Amino acid sequence: MTDQRMRITGSFLVLGRAGMDLYATPAGERIEDARGYVAHLGGSAANIAATLSRLGAQTALLSRVSDDAVGRFVLAELDRYGIDRRRVGQSAGGVRTSLAVVETRLEDCQSVIYRNQAADFCLSEGDVAGVDFSTFGTLVVTGTAFADPVSRKASFLALQRAREANLTTVMDVDYRPYSWGSNQEAQSVCLEAAGACDIVVGNDVEFGLLAGASEMGLGLARNLASDGRRVAVYKMGEKGAVTVGLGTEFSTGIYRTNALKPTGAGDAFLGGFLFGLSKDTSLRDAVLRGSAAAAIVVSRVGCAPASPSLAELEAFLAQQNAPN
């Protein structure tokens, strides 16, 4: 059966990085040839929060940015998207807000990431201790936040505090190799974090990392959800996704669209999926909402600014046949 429901409660607290994305313009231009760029809100946690907020969910971000002009740009962008950023601190001392220089290209799309002394890695246990978790219904953590010892401690404390307050806990594995000392460290830490969450979402490479071998990734997803209470979504790019949990397992395809670039799909998927669960849709329908949000985002420039409104998402779903 695929009409199982896992009702989650708003509002959402998303933990992880927020940054600036610089997109080469016009669309199709390569970075090395570009003479113009447009700046947008970026970073996986901020993109997830932007998707949720654009769909109408009450959403807050827990992070840190640099105490400089780029950090202030990010704060202003969070305001523009209606994301509560009262729990986003500013760090001085030479740390820097993440910067991504990106292309809007479908083939050979380049993305250059600057994460030296990343400000979001300064998120501390003290920052988490100041959060009243009882005012939220769902905590979303992103895997990159576990890559640095300081933000790792903060992230695990956030999961502990969230469980104590009876929040639903969600992990986007969000594996970025350049953030980690080794695959072994990433596997151990992220697997521990995934075991502390009610919902785990990742792609085949990420689940393969957690399992220790690519061919074992789906088995790990099934194992995580074997208690019948947790949900794991194993994404496979153009091959769709396998969702396991609540006593069911099913596959879904992707919505076809005129894609401009591959970036942003994962963040949009998670935002659309969680929003669907918060509205008491079936587990399958929530996955399809996530897939539709992803299809919309890859057809537009940017990640956060490409996020659909609720009206746009519903119109897209009404015009499309559900993919098998």
Order of helices and strands: EEEHEHEEEHEHEHEHHEEEHHH
Roughly how many Å apart are the termini?
15 Å
**Overall number of structural domains:** 1
| Structural class designation | alpha/beta
Q: Mind explaining what this structure looks like?
A:
The chain has helices at 44-55, 69-80, 125-129, 149-164, 183-195, 204-211, 217-224, 265-278, 283-298, 310-319; strands at 12-15, 19-25, 36-42, 59-66, 84-91, 98-102, 111-114, 138-142, 168-172, 199-203, 231-235, 241-245, 248-252. It has 324 residues and is α/β, with parallel strands linked by helices. The protein has a single domain (12-18, 44-88, 121-319), classed as Ribokinase (UDP-N-acetylmuramoyl-L-alanine:D-glutamate ligase). Helix 1 (44-55) crosses helix 8 (265-278) and helix 6 crosses helix 7. The longest helix has 16 residues, at 149-164.
Key attributes of the depicted protein:
324 residues; alpha/beta; UDP-N-acetylmuramoyl-L-alanine:D-glutamate ligase; nine-stranded mixed sheet; four-stranded mixed sheet; globular
Short summary of the structure?
It contains 10 helices and 13 strands. It has 324 residues and is α/β, with parallel strands linked by helices.
Which helices and strands, and how do they pair?
Layout: E1 12-15, E2 19-25, E3 36-42, H1 44-55, E4 59-66, H2 69-80, E5 84-91, E6 98-102, E7 111-114, H3 125-129, E8 138-142, H4 149-164, E9 168-172, H5 183-195, E10 199-203, H6 204-211, H7 217-224, E11 231-235, E12 241-245, E13 248-252, H8 265-278, H9 283-298, H10 310-319
Parallel strand pairs: 1-4, 1-8, 2-6, 4-5, 8-9, 9-10, 10-11
Antiparallel strand pairs: 2-3, 6-7, 11-12, 12-13
